[in-house]
Amino acid sequence: MTEPDQHSSPIKTPKQLIIVVALAFIVPIVIIGLLSQLLTSTPHDTSGDEQRVLERIKPVGSVVIADASAPRGNLTGEQVYGQVCKTCHDAGLAGAPKSGDKTQWTARIAEGEKTLVQHAVAGFQGKAGVMPPKGGNADLTDDEVHRAVVYLANQVGAGWKEPAPTAAAAATAAKSSAAAAPAAVATSTAAATPPAAAAAPAAAGGAADGKGVYEKTCAVCHATGLAGAPKFGDKAAWAARIATGVNTLHNAALHGKNAMPPKGGNLALTDTDVTAAVDYMVSAAK
């Protein structure tokens, strides 16, 4: 009996070799596919991954927009003068006594602080000129007008004292300052905002309200005809002015003419506000 050769290969034919080689490739691929399917089909918690992504892409800072308006009732006399009074009192428009002119102010100061403040708040028609209520800016408080009167009088040595802000005005000022503090910190994210995008909220305010501007500022003179102002709705008084063209009227209202102070004495108005008010008065006189 012949003893089998222990060193002989179990692969005897070419067909067996091909099968072995094919299985060597196919079996690992099948095993890898099964493992991959098993791993991907198993649910796992992704909240940690999402949190890490959010932490990685979050902005480096934030911007808080504070109220841009000044605290009501807290303006100093110098601030009110610069915003409203200087329109007439710098140049002497409409008979206004010029700032710092002792000759023009002496008789007025002799009337007393209380009288001058009353005239400035309520308006006054004098022999030489006219003072519209609150200088034409109805948004000013009585105390703010009072401070402006004191500021003007002190320019010629009156020595009066400006009234201090009321408790409410002081509280508003403190709140406004606190709210404005975060807005003062600029971030790289805010710096990258295009100018057009930053200006978008301002444009969303809508068209100017000609009627509202007239009632707050222009009516002071145009409702009563003070200082030769054509009365609202008086077609005869407006006819010659309308004939000069709306552009001429806009220019006169914006830059002043004769007794008409620039922007009606309210320099806080925008050019659009002023032209809208002119258009409103012109339409009422046609």
Give a nutshell description of this structure.
The chain has helices spanning 14-41, 47-57, 77-89, 102-110, 113-122, 142-154, 167-183, 188-191, 195-203, 210-222, 235-243, 246-255, 271-284, and strands at 124-125, 130-131.
Distance between the termini: 136 Å
Which shape, going by the Cα principal axes?
elongated
The helix/strand series, from N terminus to C terminus, equals HHHHHEEHHHHHHHH
Strand content: under 5%
Radius of gyration: 40 Å
Largest sheet: 2 strands, antiparallel
Strand order of the largest sheet: 1-2
Mean pLDDT: 77
Count of separate DSSP helical elements? 13
Helix-strand makeup class? mainly alpha
What's the total count of β strands? 2
Q: Which regions contain 5 or more consecutive residues with pLDDT less than 50?
A: 64-68, 183-206
Share of helix, binned:
55-70%
Word description of this protein:
The protein is an all-alpha fold and 286 residues long. It is built from 13 helices and 2 strands. The longest helix is centred in the N-terminal third of the chain and has 28 residues. The protein is elongated, with a radius of gyration of 40 Å. The protein starts with 13 loop residues before the first helix and ends with a helix. About 10% of the residues have low confidence.
How would you summarize the topology of this molecule?
Elements: H1 14-41, H2 47-57, H3 77-89, H4 102-110, H5 113-122, E1 124-125, E2 130-131, H6 142-154, H7 167-183, H8 188-191, H9 195-203, H10 210-222, H11 235-243, H12 246-255, H13 271-284
Antiparallel strand pairs: 1-2
Helix pairs in contact: 3-6, 5-6, 10-13, 12-13
